Amino acid sequence: xxxxxxxxxxxxxxxxxxxxxxxxxxxxxxxxxxxxxxxxxxxxxxxxxxxxxxxxxxxxxxxxxxxxxxxxxxxxxxxxxxxxxxxxxxxxxxxxxxxxxxxxxxxxxxxxxxxxxxxxxxxxxxxxxxxxxxxxxxxxxxxxxxxxxxxxxxxxxxxxxxxxxxxxxxxxxxxxxxxxxxxxxxxxxxxxxxxxxxxxxxxxxxxxxxxxxxxxxxxxxxxxxxxxxxxxxxxxxxxxxxxxxxxxxxxxxxxxxxxxxxxxxxxxxxxxxxxxxxxxxxxxxxx
Amino acid sequence: xxxxxxxxxxxxxxxxxxxxxxxxxxxxxxxxxxxxxxxxxxxxxxxxxxxxxxxxxxxxxxxxxxxxxxxxxxxxxxxxxxxxxxxxxxxxxxxxxxxxxxxxxxxxxxxxxxxxxxxxxxxxxxxxxxxxxxxxxxxxxxxxxxxxxxxxxxxxxxxxxxxxxxxxxxxxxxxxxxxxxxxxx
Lengths: 287, 185
Known about the structure:
A: Uridine Diphospho-n-acetylenolpyruvylglucosamine Reductase, domain 2, Uridine Diphospho-n-acetylenolpyruvylglucosamine Reductase, domain 3, Enolase-like, domain 1, 5-stranded antiparallel β-sheet, 4-stranded antiparallel β-sheet, 12 helices, 26% strand, globular, B: alpha+beta, Ubiquitin-like (UB roll), DNA polymerase, domain 1, 5-stranded mixed β-sheet, 36% helix
């Protein structure tokens, strides 16, 4: 349970970090907060030759609100975002979601972008990013590119990030005025990875559901945006009947959930549907 | 001599008020640095993958898992371990509360619980039930069933409130002593 030997580099600019990653390719790994990577190293499930620690790059720890987005830099600790002044007003969905991310003792060290780049399908942040319509700014040897959260996640622990690319910031659009939101999940204990969960946002306009967004997590290889449920909700009369119907569509949309000692596939599918229904009810109440 | 061995890295870090420099293999975890290099074995290692919390220490006042953190990541920061709590043989209120309220049996998890509780109470002297459970929920104890631990932290919180100090504030004086000439490097 000790990490294998590796070289260590602490670049002081993004360009320098990218150059190191470019030079070493798949043999290099980015270290941010290390809350996922270090566990993998200790268990020797990962054996990089070089760790590129980006904590010494100035400026990556900034959080700001600009152009209608909450902009979170690559080294922003989950706990720093949680305590960002005014987050309860500026992005209550993210605040609620962050409180489900591991334990405070992990959030103190773990970064928002690190969790996104790690792409664990049971993690909350990737689902929050998809639900919020986040955009990621990625820097590589050929410069910067931008990608939507929805396109970013490919499968378990796999994103579109190339070995020489660095996720430099995540941009979370602020919720529209009057939006309701909810994060629901089932875990063995608070802070553990979710067996299954759901994130929902919506507005209520003229007593009807408007702009619904429904994302399930912990039930597949990537956060699952449930368009069938969203279509059923759009224009529906808010109420238990609508939540039940759309929740059932979420369960139906779950294709091949994990089946392990913690929960069977059938249980995860069922829980995802129930969590989605509850999230819809709570989001509507807040809208 | 192993020529494949990666270069050692220089690390300067403040531990319990004392500024230290060391040359380490990059893969040295903060926990191993504290325990093996510094002999501070109060920080315990349980799961070694960030789940059990036995290795919890404070980094700039924030509770972190020292088993899933490299010593080199702590360079330039301040680390506080359980050894900093007692002042010349007098237990810190958090430690005393664990004794008074039977917050431990085997004691393996205790340093982690106390360091996690120290951050919480420094941040919030009168935490809600939910905040208390969320913080302590990040630590694993296999003996007590947690009730006595929760009771201990509540007791310490009350005593600290009566004294009008935070748990870390209380350490500052002792740590300064450590940092004084003769105590350093």
